[in-house]
Amino acid sequence: MINITNIEKEQYYSIEEVAKLLKVVYLTVYRWIQSKKLSxxxxxxxxxxxKSDLDKFTNKHK
Length: 62
Hints:
- By secondary structure, the chain is α+β, with helices and mostly antiparallel strands.
- The protein has one domain (10-60): Multidrug-efflux Transporter Regulator, Chain: A, Domain 2 (Orthogonal Bundle), CATH 1.10.1660.
- The chain has helices at residues 4-9, 15-22, 26-34, 51-60, and strands spanning 12-13, 41-43, 46-50.
- It has a 3-stranded antiparallel β-sheet.
- A hairpin with a 2-residue loop joins β2 (41-43) and β3 (46-50).
- It starts with a helix and ends with a helix.
């Protein structure tokens, strides 16, 4: 269950922002999400990646 207070405190990124941060293309990040390598929340038609999930992903794939 998603706790609304955690959502308000957590920082979230769009796929475009993550792609820019990691210096990869949009489609690469999208594929990571689809293959469950990177956790994301779908908000309407858009995905949002939490800072903590992005940190876990980058630490795991160093």
